[in-house]
Specification:
Shape: elongated
CATH class of the largest domain: Mainly Beta
Radius of gyration: 27 Å
Largest sheet: 6 strands, mixed, barrel
Number of domains: 2
CATH topology of the largest domain: Ribosomal Protein L25, Chain P
Distance between the termini: 79 Å
Strand content: 35-45%
Number of strands: 13
Strand order of the largest sheet: 1-3-2-6-5-4
């Protein structure tokens, strides 16, 4: 796991639209802190810290910490509101977590050893069906990515969730089937040639049928 981001945090004295605007003018981002068997709290985070985390993908569904008066609390970013025009953070929802907390989270897929795939060597294409997989994971040990090994896979082969080595304590939310993550598809040139061949065969068969009809008449 990469270094955990620590956000400077303070309690907000005012809530509502007016209070949020005042917070933003002073260089903060309004936020709500909830969960952990405690009452929700209105807080504010340093704008430059939130913006950096948002731009680097280390804000939502990533373990981080907030520092309030010298005390650190583990949190997970669950939602963010952004300016629809400027794409800048306006408000953040944070959830308190501990080692016992388990959450649903989308984790990106990573594909290893493409050079060891006979199908890709022969010009096949990696067709990614799921770029992310929703899993249930310990909040303090969310994997950065799930890894799928492409070694030995040929054209027509598929990667299923059962072949992905999941970290301890991590489980897919879909449990009723061995769903597909990716396939090794035939090169588009080959597929096009096959389709053209099928079309020519169909045309020839149609022509033959017409000829037989004419003879019968």
């Amino acid at each position: 796991m990469s270094d955990v981001t620590v956000f400077t945090c303070e309690l907000r004295q005012r809530s509502g639209t007016g209070g949020s605007r005042a917070v933003r003018r002073d260089g903060w981002v309004p936020a709500i802190l909830y969960g952990g068997d405690q009452e929700p709290a209105n807080i504010k985070l340093r704008y430059n810290e939130v913006l950096k985390a948002y731009n680097t993908g280390k804000l939502i569904s990533v373990l981080s910490k907030i520092n309030v008066d010298g005390q650190e609390q583990s949190v997970i970013g669950r939602d963010i509101q952004v300016d629809p025009v400027k794409d800048l953070p306006l408000h953040v929802d944070l959830m308190r977590v501990s080692e016992k907390t388990r959450i649903n989270v989308d984790v990106p897929m990573s594909f290893l050893n493409e050079e060891a795939s006979p199908g890709l060597k022969r010009g096949g294409v990696l067709n990614v069906v799921r770029h992310t997989v929703e899993v249930i994971a310990p909040a303090t040990r969310i994997p950065e990515a799930l890894e799928a090994d492409l070694t030995g896979l040929d054209i027509g082969d598929a990667v299923h969730i059962s072949s992905v080595n999941l970290p301890e304590g991590v489980e897919p939310t879909i449990t009723d089937r061995d769903f597909t993550i990716a396939t090794i598809a035939a090169p588009s040139v080959v597929r096009s040639a096959d389709n053209e061949g099928d079309a020519e065969d169909d045309a020839a068969e149609d022509s033959g049928d017409e000829g037989e009809t004419g003879d019968n008449e």
